[in-house]
Give the backbone structure.
Amino acid sequence: MYSKVLLAYDGSESGRRALFECADINNFLHADIHLLAVAPIAPTLFVAEGFVADVPQEEENARFAQVLDDGLAQLAARNVKAAGHLVTGDAVREISRMARELKVDLIVIGHKHHPSRLERWWKGSVGASLVEEAPCSILVAVQNP
């Protein structure tokens, strides 16, 4: 079955749903759980002299470090031990990279349905893109709109 699980967590409602589902299934899996938070690369503004971060990368990293800590605390409250990992970059690439590096059997992610095609196109879908790059099975916890 699944002995090593990577749970990608961003602190969103759909991310919390995935976290809770992962905690629930771990009651019978008893897998090694790795909680991953991926801080996005801070958006930048082009100013005459060069690029200036709209939000400093350190602030993004600190925000996602807090997301990771909160996720670890929520898992611990459900008697699930997990190793925490914080990385910076593109979510799909980093989740896939960590899955390969940790040699996980399952990736767990959250997903929220977007009501319109335009919103789906504009926001993209980590889950849909991850299917193409993941080295293992994926469990998608769906949050309906």
